[in-house]
Amino acid sequence: GDAVFDGIDFDIEGGTTQHWDELASFLSQYSKQGKKVYLTAAPQCPFPDAYMGAALKTGLFDYVWVQ
């Protein structure tokens, strides 16, 4: 089809705290010159976020929407 993967929003509010940083790193590799793949996150206000702390520390997120 015509669908295009241009980004993903991490809105993790439960489950495991592991591997979100690895997933962010893996997905960021899809960005190429002229074809940006955006990574966004919606962590809870306390920092570091209980689930996303390690992922946010990677510095790979283009936008962070604090809840």
From TrEMBL:
Which GO cellular component term is one of those annotated?
extracellular region
Q: What class of enzyme is it?
A: hydrolase
Q: Which PROSITE patterns match?
A: GH18_1, GH18_2
Q: Which Gene3D superfamilies match?
A: Glycosidases
PANTHER family, sorted: ENDOCHITINASE
Q: Which family does it belong to?
A: Belongs to the glycosyl hydrolase 18 family.
- This chain belongs to which protein, by name? chitinase
Natural source organism: Quercus robur (English oak)
Q: What is the lineage of its organism?
A: Eukaryota, Viridiplantae, Streptophyta, Embryophyta, Tracheophyta
The coding gene here is: chit3-A
